[in-house]
Amino acid sequence: MNSTTFIILLIIFGLITGSITLIVVLKSLRTNLKAQQSRQEILADGTQAKALIHSVQQTSSTMDGRPGIQLDLTVTQEDGQTFRTTVETFISVVDIPQYQNGAVIDVRYKMIGNERKVEVENAYIPSA
Fold this sequence. Notes:
Layout: H1 3-45, E1 47-63, E2 66-76, E3 82-90, E4 104-112, E5 115-120
Antiparallel strand pairs: 1-2, 1-4, 2-3, 4-5
């Protein structure tokens, strides 16, 4: 194999690898954008409710310097019925005292397909 063939193969490999990487990154960005838009839609159009916090766990993620948390909640609907859910969201560090076991917080929920999606009203969601 001469050096010209090796260089051509190396360039082709680099182009293929770069293309695959670009496709994966773009799909990930699109998925994140859709998730943020869905969260904003729930907060704008969802039904207001109160939720009791059963547990709070910090996740390993952060967004714009805000820690990610996972909340185990019991949501009380307007008609008095309740349902249990888990929500992952981001909060400001100064709001941490509001998210403790036993606290009641404001949430919004919306039926999407056969599933209730819940978002915390004062959570951080970057503008899309």
